Amino acid sequence: QQQVRQSPQSLTVWEGETAILNCSYEDSTFDYFPWYWQFPRESPALLIAIRPVSNKKEDGRFTIFFNKREKKLSLHITDSQPGDSATYFCAASPGNYKYVFGAGTRLKVIA
Amino acid sequence: AQTIHQWPVAEIKAVGSPLSLGCTIKGKSSPNLYWYWQATGGTLQQLFYSITVGQVESVVQLNLSASRPKDDQFILSTEKLLLSHSGFYLCGGGGQNTLYFGAGTRLSVL
């Protein structure tokens, strides 16, 4: 069964620190990895995404590092802000209109 | 930019009653459309997807059905609600390798 695993389940960092959220997968056919963030009582919003042809994708303070050999990726949030406090979901798709989501990491940034 | 409108925003329904949730996408021609379900505090579970009018593929049924009557519309329904149907229903849309969500519908089954 296709699975996407995320760790840690929850993470607390101080404002200004770098938060690192991890994701791993099993299925080698996955070829698209989007990250979503979800604030309480809202729907998930696409944050940043990567395809295995790249090992890094950067968008402002958000960077995905991708290790295809180990089937792992991580989302780094530099200079974390209280407004970044949300649940982050790693997802994966093999390109057949199916998206598998991880269980999420709940991030709390303390001012 | 595409926009996804879902209706209703929230529903409180009785066990055994019927349900119909809707979704309309604008700003994207021939979009791929999706239904997802999220339990409170849980992950997102894909229910259905559709790549063209009249065709819907089931991923996990959960005693629900879906239809795509128009290019920009996706409907989720059931004739008999269960307690386990409670949760947050998300309509998604996009093209190849893009998935955006609407604001969602919160369903409470009592």
Would you spell out the secondary-structure blueprint of this structure?
The complex is a heterodimer of chains A (111) and B (110).
Chain A: E1 4-7, E2 10-14, E3 19-25, E4 33-38, E5 45-50, E6 56-59, E7 62-67, E8 72-77, E9 86-92, E10 100-101, E11 105-110
Parallel strand pairs in A: 2-11
Antiparallel strand pairs in A: 1-3, 3-8, 4-5, 4-9, 6-7, 7-8, 9-10, 9-11
Chain B: E1 3-7, E2 10-13, E3 19-26, E4 32-38, E5 44-52, E6 55-58, E7 65-70, E8 73-78, E9 87-94, E10 100-101, E11 105-109
Parallel strand pairs in B: 2-11
Antiparallel strand pairs in B: 1-3, 3-8, 4-5, 4-9, 5-6, 7-8, 9-10, 9-11
Structure overview:
The complex is a heterodimer of chains A (111) and B (110). Chain A is mainly β and 111 residues long. Chain A contains no helices and 11 strands. In chain A, 32% of the residues are buried. The mean pLDDT of chain A is 96. Chain B has 110 residues and is mainly β. Chain B is 0% helix and 58% strand. Chain B is built from no helices and 11 strands. Chain B has strands at residues 3-7, 10-13, 19-26, 32-38, 44-52, 55-58, 65-70, 73-78, 87-94, 100-101, 105-109. In chain B, strand 4 and strand 5 (44-52) form a beta hairpin. In chain B, 36% of the residues are buried. Chain A binds chain B through residues 32, 34, 42-46, 49, 51, 89, 91, 93, 95, 97-104, and chain B through 32, 34, 42-46, 49, 51, 57, 59, 88, 90, 96-104.
